[in-house]
């Protein structure tokens, strides 16, 4: 699947550890409500491993493809290969993006960037988009850095006006608009969907 900036508009991320009920049901509802991309992030406490992780990933990929939205895998390059995912998202402590691009010349590749130092040391020309954050405080990621604020998006946009940016971290139906106004091409979110009883409404408002 070829990357397009508008895929970043409403980018839902989750793994089973984020869900109070079947992740398939949650993704199905979010996809029907209009998310534009999905990242499978099976990670941390209570996450699935081995065959159970692979089985869930296959089911979630099928749901994404029913709705023609990209299925992106977080961190796990081997799983992305095994499942022929549409893309992979890596951070600064994951496999170097140069290595990932060599393995996946045609997949969507996202890279997290939180500081100017990371920005200046990253090969932006080989990634499709940047994950910028955490913008606001979040309890969802165990090892999340300190919130960088909307200024980080404004700063990125000023330095690289055409670089596709998706914001992450503490984004919800109330603050999503200011994130877009700051210059992000889209918002990514976990708990805004996994902790609501009204997925349709939440996706529409996001
Ligand atoms: C869209 C998006 N942006 C940032 C991240 C964070 O990636 P990373 O820093 O590698 O942290 P983990 O998610 O792997 O814990 C992301 N996953 N997605
Ligand atoms: C994976 C990740 N990377 C930076 S913050 C974050 C967690 C985002 O979760 P939430 O949308 O619930 O704050
Ligand atoms: Mg990572």
Automatic annotation (TrEMBL):
Stretches of the chain forming a coiled coil according to its record: none
Keyword Metal-binding found: yes
Cofactor binding mode and count: Binds 1 Mg(2+) ion per subunit.
Catalysed transformations (reactions): 2-(2-carboxy-4-methylthiazol-5-yl)ethyl phosphate + 4-amino-2-methyl-5-(diphosphooxymethyl)pyrimidine + 2 H(+) = thiamine phosphate + CO2 + diphosphate; 4-methyl-5-(2-phosphooxyethyl)-thiazole + 4-amino-2-methyl-5-(diphosphooxymethyl)pyrimidine + H(+) = thiamine phosphate + diphosphate; 2-[(2R,5Z)-2-carboxy-4-methylthiazol-5(2H)-ylidene]ethyl phosphate + 4-amino-2-methyl-5-(diphosphooxymethyl)pyrimidine + 2 H(+) = thiamine phosphate + CO2 + diphosphate
Protein residues bound to Mg(2+): 75, 94
Residues of the signal peptide: none
A Pfam family reported for this protein in Swiss-Prot or TrEMBL: TMP-TENI
Name of the protein: Thiamine-phosphate synthase
Organism annotation: Oceanobacillus kimchii
Lineage, uppermost ranks: Bacteria, Bacillati, Bacillota, Bacilli, Bacillales
């Amino acid at each position: 699947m070829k990357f397009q900036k508008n895929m970043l508009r409403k980018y839902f991320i989750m793994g089973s550890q984020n869900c109070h009920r079947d992740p398939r049901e949650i993704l199905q509802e979010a996809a029907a409500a209009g998310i534009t991309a999905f990242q499978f992030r099976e990670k941390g406490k209570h996450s699935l491993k081995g065959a159970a992780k692979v089985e869930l990933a296959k089911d979630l990929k099928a749901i994404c493809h029913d709705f023609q939205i990209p299925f992106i895998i977080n961190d796990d390059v081997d799983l992305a290969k095994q499942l022929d995912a549409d893309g992979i998202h890596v951070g600064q402590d994951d496999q170097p993006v140069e290595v990932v691009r060599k393995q996946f010349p045609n997949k969507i590749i996202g890279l997290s960037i939180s500081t100017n130092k990371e920005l200046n040391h990253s090969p932006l020309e080989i990634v499709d988009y940047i994950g910028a954050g955490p913008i606001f405080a979040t309890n969802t990621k165990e090892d999340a850095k300190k919130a960088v604020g909307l200024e980080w998006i404004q700063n990125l946009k000023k330095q690289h006006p055409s670089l596709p940016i998706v914001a992450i971290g503490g984004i919800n139906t109330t603050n999503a608009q200011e994130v877009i106004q700051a210059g992000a091409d889209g918002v990514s979110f976990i708990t805004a969907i996994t902790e609501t009883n009204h997925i349709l409404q939440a996706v529409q408002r996001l």
